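Our platform keeps sequence and structure together, in a single record for each protein. This encoding replaces a full spatial description with a residue-level series of whole-number codes. We quote a single record here, exactly as it is kept in our systems:
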Amino acid sequence: MSVYPSTLQRLISDLSKLPGVGHKTAARLALYLFRAPREYTESLAASILEVKKNIGFCTTCFNLTDQDSCKICKDPNRDQSVLCVVEEVGDLLALEEAGVFPGRYHVLQGVLAPLDGIGPENLRIKELLERLQQGMIKEVVLAINPSTEGEATATYIAGLLKKQGVSVSQIAQGIPMGGDLKYTDAVTLRRAMEGRRETR
């Protein structure tokens, strides 16, 4: 039986579903929100609802945006000849925060995982190939997390891209096997990007 009132217990339960938030942290956050000024909690609730209502995926690269195209795709100063393929939006954000890539991106929204029923048709691979057909892209950098599924995905995509006549490189393995780009420091990301190599 919970020692918290049912309404507070429901908030704790909801908060504990957030990634990296256990029961104790969720309880601490719930109590903080209870003590916080009403204006703050109303603003927080409104921000969450606004994100769910107004944020979607860029129709070109599948980054997060509140418009049809994201800021990176709209930026005329980005190198349009180099495309960096990443697994998730968090990986794109990590590379952007590190300031290591001057080109444009393509977010796959996952990796191949046949045991989980995730095949090429479940990722944004078709859209990637369509972007290449426009003829502006000369190099594709595969910056997919170095997990078993990530390596399989990179190998599969590299095979498809080489048929398109573009240069395909992969970030250097400064990122440890099983690592995650969004949790990697800026120096490691910079070295990995600078040390990218052509895929075999």
